[in-house]
């Protein structure tokens, strides 16, 4: 593949290849001097049409640690505000001879549209309710490391039961993680109020729950998602207080799952709504900050691997 538009385009061996490639960058990022010249002379444009903290910063840090020149385009300060179309923005970025373009956009499929118009690899940094592939990859890498720290073999997730609980309907993170975790052998349980569960999602092989306690029973991992109120249009949802009562991850609830259930959250968190602080900050169970750490390494791996063909370096073309 030239682009990384979704986990849905990747085979299991390609997912594992990207996770394995990221390990060298995890090691580099833990050193005092975090620098490689792998992408020296290349220009990477991060074009973000939606807000971001983790994804934008980690893509920027990833590109810089690989020696590339990195430029960020924030839609709010761009000519998008003057009525420029997405296609014209894409053509403009392409004319500047970017070597990779990273896009976040509020519309599902927007990254694919841009990929069709440009000559360089496009990486999806989140498109509408569709996919957020690097989030799923970093989540898998964080889980792999957490399991290894416990002395468990974690090349894939066969036998693991993973609950994804929250606003599944609006979540590109849930979709990408469902695809990624299933490809790696896990059983995925999706849990949400009925109004926030996409109809027909069972067809993707997920187990569907509306009762969070039942979903948590015997679970190895609880991945919590926030309510994406900015994407809601008239769905009946409980108040924040009621939502917390029914679907919030509290310490008492976590204790009823398994004694070693891991806690994940892609961020940004709404503490006291979908997750309590005492759970989010649990040193032995929460791997939320590790997810952020792995985000830089995964984005380094994706930028490195996707630009290999243009740099004349073997690797991705052989497996993809
Ligand atoms: N998880 C995630 O995508 O976070 P940001 O919206 O801060 O990038």
UniProtKB/TrEMBL annotation:
Recorded hits in SUPFAM superfamilies, A to Z, give: Aspartate/ornithine carbamoyltransferase
Q: Tell me which residues bind carbamoyl phosphate.
A: 54-55, 104, 132, 135, 267-268
| Catalysed reaction, written as an equation | carbamoyl phosphate + L-aspartate = N-carbamoyl-L-aspartate + phosphate + H(+)
Q: Name one Pfam family in it.
A: OTCace_N
Top class in the EC scheme: transferase
What InterPro entries does the record point to?
Answer: Asp/Orn_carbamoyltranf_P-bd, Asp/Orn_carbamoylTrfase, Asp/Orn_carbamoylTrfase_sf, Asp_carbamoyltransf, Asp_carbamoyltransf_Asp/Orn-bd
Keywords attached to this Swiss-Prot or TrEMBL record, sorted alphabetically, are: Pyrimidine biosynthesis, Transferase
> Where in the numbering of this chain does the Aspartate/ornithine carbamoyltransferase Asp/Orn-binding domain appear?
159-305
Keyword check for Transferase, yes or no.
yes
Per the record, the pathway is: Pyrimidine metabolism; UMP biosynthesis via de novo pathway; (S)-dihydroorotate from bicarbonate: step 2/3
GO terms assigned for molecular function? aspartate carbamoyltransferase activity
Domain (Aspartate/ornithine carbamoyltransferase carbamoyl-P binding): give its ranges: 2-144
Report which superkingdom the organism of origin falls in.
Bacteria
Entry-linked Gene3D superfamilies: Aspartate/ornithine carbamoyltransferase
Residues given in the record as L-aspartate binding sites: 82, 172, 226
EC identifiers of the protein: 2.1.3.2
Signal peptide location: none
User: Whom does it interact with, and what assembly results?
Assistant: Heterododecamer (2C3:3R2) of six catalytic PyrB chains organized as two trimers (C3), and six regulatory PyrI chains organized as three dimers (R2).
| Entry function | Reversibly catalyzes the transfer of the carbamoyl group from carbamoyl phosphate (CP) to the N(epsilon) atom of ornithine (ORN) to produce L-citrulline. Catalyzes the condensation of carbamoyl phosphate and aspartate to form carbamoyl aspartate and inorganic phosphate, the committed step in the de novo pyrimidine nucleotide biosynthesis pathway.
HAMAP family, per the entry: Asp_carb_tr (MF_00001)
List, alphabetically, the NCBIfam families matched: asp_carb_tr, PRK00856.1
Family statement:
Belongs to the aspartate/ornithine carbamoyltransferase superfamily. ATCase family.
What PANTHER family does this protein map onto? ASPARTATE CARBAMOYLTRANSFERASE, ORNITHINE CARBAMOYLTRANSFERASE, MITOCHONDRIAL
In Swiss-Prot or TrEMBL terms, this protein is called Aspartate carbamoyltransferase
* Organism of origin: Qipengyuania gelatinilytica
What gene, per UniProt, encodes this protein?
Answer: pyrB
């Amino acid at each position: 593949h030239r682009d990384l538009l979704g986990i849905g385009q990747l085979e299991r061996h390609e997912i594992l290849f990207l996770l394995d490639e990221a390990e060298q960058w995890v090691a580099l990022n833990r050193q005092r001097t975090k620098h490689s010249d792998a992408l020296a002379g290349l220009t990477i444009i991060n074009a973000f049409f939606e807000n971001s903290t983790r994804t934008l910063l980690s893509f920027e840090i990833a590109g810089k640690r690989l020696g590339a020149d990195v430029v960020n385009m924030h839609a709010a300060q761009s000519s998008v505000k003057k009525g420029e179309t997405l296609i014209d923005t894409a053509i403009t970025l392409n004319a500047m001879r970017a070597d990779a373009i990273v896009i976040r956009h509020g519309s599902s499929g927007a990254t694919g549209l841009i990929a069709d118009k440009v000559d360089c690899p496009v990486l999806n940094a989140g498109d509408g309710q569709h996919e957020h592939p690097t989030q799923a990859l970093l989540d898998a890498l964080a889980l792999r490391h957490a399991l290894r720290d416990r002395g468990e073999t974690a090349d894939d997730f066969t036998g693991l039961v993973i609950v994804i609980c929250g606003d599944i309907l609006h979540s590109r993170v849930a979709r990408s993680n469902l695809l990624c975790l299933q490809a790696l052998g896990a059983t995925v349980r999706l849990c949400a109020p009925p109004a926030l569960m996409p109809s027909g999602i069972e067809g993707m092989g997920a187990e569907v729950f509306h009762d969070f306690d039942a979903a948590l029973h015997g679970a190895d991992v609880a991945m919590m998602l926030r309510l994406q109120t900015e994407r809601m249009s008239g769905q009946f949802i409980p108040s924040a207080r009621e939502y917390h009562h029914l679907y919030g991850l509290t310490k008492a609830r976590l204790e009823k799952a398994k004694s070693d259930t891991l806690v994940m959250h892609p961020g940004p968190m709404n503490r006291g709504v979908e997750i309590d602080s005492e759970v989010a900050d649990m040193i032995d169970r929460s791997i939320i900050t590790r997810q952020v750490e792995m985000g830089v390494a995964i984005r380094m791996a994706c930028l490195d691997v996707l630009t290999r063909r243009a740099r004349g370096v073997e690797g991705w073309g052989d497996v993809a």
